[in-house]
Design goal:
Elements lengths: L6 H22 L15 H5 L1 E5 L2 E5 L5 H6 L21 H10 L16 H18 L6 H27 L3 E3 L2 E3 L3
Antiparallel strand pairs: 1-2, 3-4
Helix pairs in contact: 1-6, 4-5
Length: about 180
């Protein structure tokens, strides 16, 4: 029913853009406890979020291979998170953790709690320990599109329904005898 020039298709495309922007905001503001800068470190996932509105339908997603693991989470070996993905014998990649450690300014400490120099061996050791902890505890899901939908749908419902009604009545006509009636 919704053609590309229809009011509904235009309103849907506008809402899809708003929803995608809201999902990007959700990814940027994730916090855990007092850690206000917990959100996505590199911003790559946030920047990769795309949508496509075509024929009255909208598809959302990201081409990044790890997007699904952030969205659905990953079960750990010791803690289950209700995710379709689980860590088996493999751990998260240490290269990715090292990259994350460089983006997030983490400082290494010794056993007494004093800061120490960041050597490659020290970073590798810390990355291994972090990877092992992630393997055990898993990754909590962040359903950024669901959260964005919950935030934006109330505002968009009226606009979408009005656009749908306009399209419906544009296609509406009646014929009574020799007289044909169409909306203006």
């Amino acid at each position: 029913m919704a053609t590309t020039g229809s009011n509904y298709a235009k309103a849907l495309a506008k809402y899809a853009q708003e929803l995608n922007n809201a999902a990007r905001r959700v990814l940027g503001r994730r916090t855990i406890g007092k850690n206000k800068t917990y959100g996505e470190a590199s911003g790559a996932l946030r920047k990769s979020l795309k949508y496509e509105a075509k024929g009255g339908k909208v598809m959302f997603g990201s081409p990044l291979p790890y997007a699904q693991f952030i969205y659905w989470g990953v079960n750990g070996t010791e803690k289950k998170r209700g995710s379709p993905y689980s860590y088996g014998s493999k751990q998260p990649p240490m290269d990715a953790i090292k990259k994350w450690m460089r983006v997030k300014p983490l400082r290494l400490r010794d056993k007494d709690g004093r800061f120490i120099a960041q050597t490659d061996a020290g970073l590798s050791s810390a990355a291994f320990l972090i990877a092992r902890s992630i393997k055990k505890k898993g990754i909590a899901s962040l359903k950024y599109y669901e959260k964005a939908y919950d935030e934006t749908i109330k505002k968009a419902e009226n606009k979408l329904s009005e656009a749908f009604a306009k399209d419906l009545f544009n296609d509406f006509s009646a014929k009574v005898g020799n007289i044909k009636m169409t909306p203006k």
